[in-house]
Amino acid sequence: MEKINLGTLFPGIGTLFSGGTDVFLARLALIALGLFLIYLGKKKILEPLLMIPMGLGMATINAAVMVLPGGKQGNLFVDPLITDTNDLFNILQIDWLQPIYTFTFSNGLIACCIFMGIGVLLDVGYMLRRPFLSIFLALFAEMGTFLVVPIASAMGMSLQDSASIAMVGGADGPMVLFTSMILSKDLFVPITIVAYLYLGFTYGGYPYLIKLLVPKHIRGIQPPPPKKVNPISSSQKLTFAVVMCVVLCLLFPVAAPLFFSLFLGVAVREADIKPVVDFIQGPLLYGSTFFLGLLLGILCEAHLILNPKILPLLLLGILALLISGIGGLLGGYIVYWVTGGKFNPVIGIAGVSCVPSTAKVAQKAVSQVNPKAIILQDALGANISGVITTAIITGLYVTLIPYFLK
Amino acid sequence: MIASYFVLIAASLTFATGFFVASIIWSIKWILSPKEVGESTKSVHLLHMFSRQDLNKGFVAPGRSSEGTNNESVFNQELYQYHYGKN
Fold it and tell me: ipTM of this model?
């Protein structure tokens, strides 16, 4: 009888010791991080819908490493590095998450589904009330998306990787996924994970940023209502969605799937197709977010954190969000000065397009000083404009970068 | 250097596109909303004019004088007509 040792009987443990010290430590660290993410999700510190599947996926994938036929170490979940068509067809029959990865993740379908869900949730009427103001604030709140590109380049990253990590400044997860999948195929997993981990920063960190940069007496300002308020009809909102979709797709065909998904969601909502609205904002949005979290967790193998580019990505991601927050407040201050002190600059931070978190953060910060001040409508306008400006920047980055590489 | 140049161009184009988008939104609002509001205002004015010229006897409730019908309450007249018919 052949001798059986513990390493072959329990391959997860066997591979833990056979891969070298760095892999051993990295696998243990990722299992611990996965469990920590589950804890953060359970405590509602970070979004549980994402963190529970991501954390469990991360812990599991680093535990379930085995020796595959041929002597190579791997797992039975997914192989993201397969490019050959024959190998892909074989692996589709073996790795259970490979079909979801190949047919929804690597082609951007999952990002588009989430964007469709966001579209259904958006009431563009807030943006239509004051379009120039909303767009102005949203543009300033993209400062991190711009300024982090040269900073990342100065740190030795390529222009594609710099642009991808800078997109975290837009605080829009699906957009970061879409951009990094096109521009940085090797780094799209860590960049997207950084983006989703840091989105919690908008809830946790931005209130402190507001307190630091906006004095109390300015924070409580109630902006005057617009002189003439015409209710925005659903026909106007539907027309807006249709015209914007066509115009933006004409300008940036490369980001057309994102624009189409977003405005399809808006159009379905405004056309009041209730069964489809219920489907998109329920099963489709929640299902896509769940599988996105699961796949991101599953893709977090030990070799990922051994990549020397990970640490700069962690620093640049938080920097991008910080600069965007400062930019939003700067935009708010400009409007405050132009209107002679009648505008509340805190609204500016809502231009960071984490719908509707940043709008809620802005309203909460104002309510703490002046409970009667209501800024939520203007904040939501800037918030929704932020989604559109981030999509515009995605289109521009993906279109422009090839010209700079020639 | 290339990154700074890239950002400068990208930021300029983003601002230009952003304000272009805002102007389209404003145009949509302008094209759609004045029409809807304008028509309804005109129809209200027309009703006012009719009532002023005493052409709205059909709105008057049986047993009530036309003075009882206030020119300002055109919508009430419509409501009355809906419930009781023209006479």
Answer: 0.84
